[in-house]
Design a protein that fits this description.
alpha+beta, elongated, Thrombin, subunit H, 2 domains, six-stranded antiparallel barrel, 2 helices
Length: 143
């Protein structure tokens, strides 16, 4: 991720409506934030505080089993209303792929819940995944 005037979007970002836990390294208390998007290099989330650029944080997404955990470097922070949008870059390239998989799993779980609320149909995880893939996988951007 980058936030420079010459190349503001080096990577394509994908919406990620996922609660995440963010913790300053080392050992601070985790703060639950709201993930807004995942890109090839990292993710962005909304925060009550602006985090220091170049600082290292731990990112944890507890919505999946096992929970996704990764270290990331804060790349940028900018005001967004009365909060801040923070962009981070994963320190390990493999974490980018894992984050995309977590995003997809969370998207399918949201689909399962939406089908239940809107249509009254109860789907297990496999049924929801099969339906979601058939209907939407072609529109789910690849990294």
């Amino acid at each position: 991720m980058t936030d420079t005037a010459t190349n503001p979007r080096r990577f394509i970002r994908h919406t990620a409506d996922v609660p995440i836990e963010v913790r300053a390294v080392p050992g601070a208390q985790a703060v639950v934030q709201h993930g807004t998007n995942v890109s090839e290099g990292g993710l962005a989330f909304v925060s009550d505080a602006c985090l220091d650029a170049e600082g290292t944080i731990e990112v944890r997404i507890p919505e999946v089993d096992p929970p996704f955990e990764a270290h990331a470097r804060v790349v940028w922070c900018r005001p967004e209303g009365d909060r801040y949008l923070v962009g981070v870059q994963f320190l390990d390239a493999a974490d980018t792929f894992r984050a995309r998989m977590v995003e997809q799993v969370c998207t399918i779980e949201k689909y399962r819940k939406d089908v239940h609320e809107q249509e009254g149909r109860e789907l297990d995880a496999q049924q929801a995944a099969a339906e979601w893939i058939q209907k939407y996988a072609g529109r789910f951007p690849t990294a």
